[in-house]
Amino acid sequence: MNFTVCRPLSLTAIFLGVAFAHHSALAQTKFATIGTGGITGVYYAAGGALCRVINRDRATNGIRCSVEATPGSLVNIDSLKRNSINFAIVQGDLHFQAVKGEGVFAKNGVQENLRSVLSLHPEALTILSGKDVGAKGIDDLKGRRFGLGMLGSGGRATTEKLLQLSNWKNTDFGAVTERTADEQGHALCENKIDGFAYVVGHPAPNVMRTIKDCGATLIAVDGPGVAALLKEFPYYVKADIAGGIYPNHGNAVPTVGMLASLVTTDSVPDAMVYAVVKSVFANIDELRGLHPALARLDPKKMVSDGLIAPIHPGALQFYKEKGWL
């Protein structure tokens, strides 16, 4: 009789205990979203790689990381300001402008809440032209149909800056179009445009696909406009798209570049940022192997180069514990 009465009570207690534990686990899980770029771009792949190594340590860091595809750096910084994402990958020039309240951020002023976490891969201004265009450099694209990229993308902002310093106007093109990087590759192969530009780390899947599918050509980015860009903006450096990584491109292609960085805001808790950087650096070898653009990541450079906004206190704590800063 006593056994019959006690048994359902015990089952109930066990059920309640399991339910409570499950609820506690859910309550302790912290959700982190990384704003990236288009789904075929390196930002999206890099964000996915970061989430993979962060999620690997979920049992200890309590973080469930996810990636959000976006138009690019400008939208990412705005989304951080509105607290609709927790972290974002941003292009070096827009990172600088946001901190200084210059360029595209001049109207809204300094983004005072922006904080650096770590730097990632180098990326290059990349211009592709159609097989039959015969372009060797950007000047050969005058009068042609050209894809500048989406408004809100860092690549478009960089391209327009270079064109301005090269004394170009949009009207110097035969037509200017607005498409995502993925759409631009298709448009080039379908002869809807003659060339397009965007900023990306290499090798990039959509560059590879466009070159393979329709014989597109990478063109050199050099000349007086580049010299002026390097002189005026300290975050730009001379760069090459290495030879041999794309079909029919055995020689390096000169261009300009910068570093992509992972950033956040001062409203993201120190504990979350600390846990994120701890997981990233604990799994750095795996991270390097997840995408070719990440293959040369150097922890010492990741905590110093390209970090324009103040380093988030959670990240700074970890770097000081490691003796890196």
Radius of gyration, taken over Cα atoms and rounded to an integer in Å: 23 Å
Q: How is the biggest beta sheet arranged? A: 10 strands, mixed
Low-confidence stretches: 1-27
Overall mean confidence score, pLDDT: 89
Distance between the termini: 69 Å
User: What's the total helix number?
Assistant: 13
What is the percent of helical residues? 40-55%
Name the CATH architecture of the largest domain: 3-Layer(aba) Sandwich
CATH superfamily of the largest domain: Periplasmic binding protein-like II
Number of domains: 2
Which class do the helix and strand fractions yield? alpha/beta
What form results from the Cα inertia axes? Answer: globular
- Would you state the CATH class of the largest domain? Alpha Beta
Order of helices and strands: HEHHEHEHEEHEHEHEHEEHHHH
The total strand number stands at: 10
Q: What is the fold-level CATH name, i.e. the topology of the largest domain?
A: D-Maltodextrin-Binding Protein, domain 2
Strand content: 15-25%
